[in-house]
Amino acid sequence: MSTNPRDMDSSLAEARYRSLFDAHFADIWRFARRRCDSAHDADDVAAETFAVAWRRRDDMPIEDARLWLFGVARRVLANERRSAERQNKVRLRLIESAAEEASTDAIFEPQSVVWDALAVLSAGERDLIIMRAWDGLTIGEIATILGCTANGVSLRLYKARRKMAREMQRKEKPATGHVESGSLSPEGGRL
Amino acid sequence: MTGNDNELAQALSRADPAIADPPPVKGSVRYSSILEAAMNREPTRDDHQTAQRIRTRLRWTRRRLAMASAAVGVAAVALVIGMTVLPGLPGGGTAQAAVKVQTVDGRYVIWFTKMAEDTKAIEDELASLGLDVKIDFVSASPSMVGTLVASDGGDGTEKYLPASGVADPVPGVSVPLDYHSSLTLWVGRPAEPGEPYSTSPALGAEAPGEALFGSHIYNMKVKDALEILKERALEAEWRDSDNTTRSAEELAESYVSSVIPVAEGRMLVFTEPDPRPDRPDEIEEALSAN
After folding, report:
1. For A75, which residue in chain B has the nearest alpha carbon?
2. What is the pLDDT of residues B79-105, one digit of tens each?
3. Distance from chain centroid for Cα B235
4. What pTM did the predictor assign?
5. B279 with A66: CB under 8 angstroms?
6. Within the 55-94 window of chain B, which residues sit less than 8 Å (CB to CB) from chain A?
7. What residues of chain B, 133 to 172, have a C-beta less than 8 Å from chain A?
8. Which end of chain B is more exposed for a tag (fewer CB within 10 A), N or C?
9. Rounded CA separation B23/A34 (Å)
10. Which CA distances in Å does B18 have to A32, A80, B13, B215?
C-alpha cells in the first residue's frame, strides 16, 4: 500500500524521491535525448523534469509516477523549445555563421533516411512514432500521456506509419545500406 | 511479422539516438549532479501548471476507470440556479432542462443531466450566466456514457475542474464565478446501433460496465481469450506487437496486453509475445469493482 509523501517526514520523503529517481531516470533521460540535439540538453531536461517532481511531490500520483514523469518531460521540452526559438531569433540576428548548428546534424547522418522520413511527419505524428517505437510505450500509455483515447492513438499511429513508410520508399538511397529499395510496406513497423 | 515490417522497425531502432548515446549511469558524477540539480532548482513560472495539468489528466483517467463503481453522495450545496432535472437522476423532477447549475464555494458547478443532441439550449443557458461553454456529446462505450470525457479551455491555469459529489453517471464541471475563458466539453452519449465509439475507458473493455468486465483477459493467451470472446458473443480484430492485424490463430501463443471496445460487440485486441508486468493494485481494484 502506498503512502503519500506529504505524510512522511522529510528524510523519508527524500529517500523515496531518490528511489523514484533511480527507478525512472534512465527512461526519462532517453525520452529527453530522443527529442533533444545533444546529451547535454537531455541532462538539462531530465534535471528539470525531476526538479518538478521534487517540488511537486505532493501532486505526483505514486502509482502513475512513470507516466506522470513522461508528461512532465513533454511539458519541459515544449517550454525549452519555445525558449530556444526565442533565443534563436536573437542569435540569428547576431551570428551569421551556421557552423555551430551544422555540427549537431552530423550525429544522425548515418540514419538520414529514417530522419528524413520522420521530418515529413507533423510534430504530433512524430511524437507518436517515437513514443511507440523508441520509448516502448503501449497504446494505452500513450493515450494516458496525451489525454486522448486509445482508439485515437491507434488510428493516428497507423496514418503516421503509413506516411513515414511512403516517404522512406520515395527517398531511400541504396548507398545508405540501411533499407532495401522498394521493400517497405505502408503497414510495416513496430508502431 | 513480415520482412518489410522488420526492416522499418530495424531502421527505426538503429536511428534511436538513445542507443548510441546512453544515459549517465548511477554513481557517475553526471548522474549525481543531475539528481543534485533536480533537488535544488528554483521553481519556474510553469512549474505548478505543468505538475497540476498532468496530474489532473491522470486523475481523470483513473476517475473514468472507477466511474461505474463510484457511489458518491449528493453534496450539500448553497444555491441552485434554474435547476430542473430528469426523472431518475439525482434530485428527481420532471422538467426538460438538460443542465443543472449550482454555486458552491465561489464556483459554478455545472451538471449535464441529459444527453441532448441539440446542445444550443444548454449553451444558451450557460451563456446567460456569462459562461462561454461549448458542448459536444460524443458516442461512447457503455461505461463512458454520461461522463465528461475531455475538455479544452482555460487561460493557461487550472481553473476548471471535473466536478464530483453527485451520483454517476451525471458528468459535471466546475469553474470560478468569474470564469471568462471559453471552454469546450466533450460528454459521452450512447452510440447509435453500429456507430463506432468516439471514446472508451483508458483500460478498455475490462472496465466496469464494459463488455469484458470481470474477464481477467489481461495477459491471457490469445487462444484462451478467444474462448471468452466467443462466450460473450464479441467480435475482435487482433493486433500483434507491431500493431499489425493478424488472425487469432497466428497469435494463439501471444498474450493480450489491452482490449479496446471500438463499437457495440466489437473489440480491438492488442497482443505482445511475452506477458506484460502486473497492473498496479489500484487499477486491479477499479477493474474488479461491482
Report:
1. B50
2. 222 222 222 233 323 234 567 777 877
3. 23
4. 0.44
5. no
6. 55, 57-62
7. 149-150
8. C
9. 11
10. 9, 19, 10, 38
